[in-house]
Every structure is written in C-alpha cells, then in structure tokens.
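We close this part of the discussion by returning to an individual protein. Part of our work consisted of pairing the sequence of a single chain with a tokenised description of its backbone. What the numbers capture is local backbone geometry rather than side-chain detail. The amino acid sequence and the backbone structure tokens for this protein are reproduced below.
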Amino acid sequence: KNKKRKQIISENEEKLQKFLKENISKLVNLYSKWANYVAEINSVLIAFASVYGGTQNAAEVLATKLSQKGIKNIKMHDVSMVHHSFILSDAFKYSHIVIAAPTYNNGIFVKMEQFINDIVSHNLQNRTYAIIENGSWAPNCANIVKTKLENLKGTNFIEDKFTIKSTPKENQEEEIERLANAIVNDIKKEG
C-alpha cells in the first residue's frame, strides 16, 4: 500500500512540474492581471434585475445592438436568478459592466444592490460602467449606483445614465443606440 501511494504521489508531482514548466508564463500573466485588476475580456457584462420585464427588455435590446456592432463575448446575468458570486466572478473578467435595474423603494432593487455591494467590498477596480435605470414614478437608482461605485480606483462611466419608465419606448430607440455606440467606442479605444 505504502509503495503504491508513493508511486502515485511521485507521478502527480511529475505531472505538476510538467504543467508548471509548460504554463508558467501564462500563469504569471494571469496573476499579474488579477493582482492589478486588469480585465481578461475586453467586452461587456450586462447584469440586470427586472420586476416586470421592462428592464430585462432594455438590457436585451442593448445586448443585441452591441452584438450587431461587432462586440463579441457579451455576457448577461439576471441577478435575481443567478447567484451573485457567479456574476462577481464575471465582473472581474470583463472590462465593461452594464448595470440595469429598477428603482425599488427609492433605492436599488435588492438583488442588484447585493451585487453592487459585492463589487465594492471586493474593491473591483479599473472598470467602465454604464447604467440603465427603470422607474415608473421616480427613477433614482442610477444616482445611488454611481455613488457606490465612483470611489473605486480606475472607475469610469459611459454617459450619465439611460432612464426608462416601465418599458423602453419607441422614441427611446435613439438613446439606446447612443449608449451602444458609446460602449462600442470605449471598447475599441481600449482595444
């Protein structure tokens, strides 16, 4: 038994050494990116919360426009359905993050607020954000989101915000287009 165990350990050590030799530069490069909060993917993560579907609709329209303009590897997460740890993991990978959320009790929708608080508590730096807020009576969450994120080092914002009231209206098509263009231009600038 002991001899077999030592043989297995020796074989695993050899495999590990081979792996490290073959991948050391890749590992050092990844570590450097992670240590300096450099995004691995120059694309867009869209995190959205939607009560009645209007905010999700706006997020999907934006994702479609970004895709039509040549942006690849767009990732979307519904913060109400996906555990925030998975979304946070993607936030560390992506250079641009769209926060799309309804105003809820004059604040941020609860699940989105949890995600934003995770971003802040993990000190996620060097990201560019765009904000879509939704509110039928008094949309206000964009101001709160921006206040929570603006003190993180290297944080930038695209446009001030994009506001919808319940659902995107036909006359807002130009605004969504402008937001998509601003995101695309910023990605290409970093490119």
Remarks:
- Residues 2-35 form the longest helix (34 residues).
- The two ends are 56 Å apart (CA to CA).
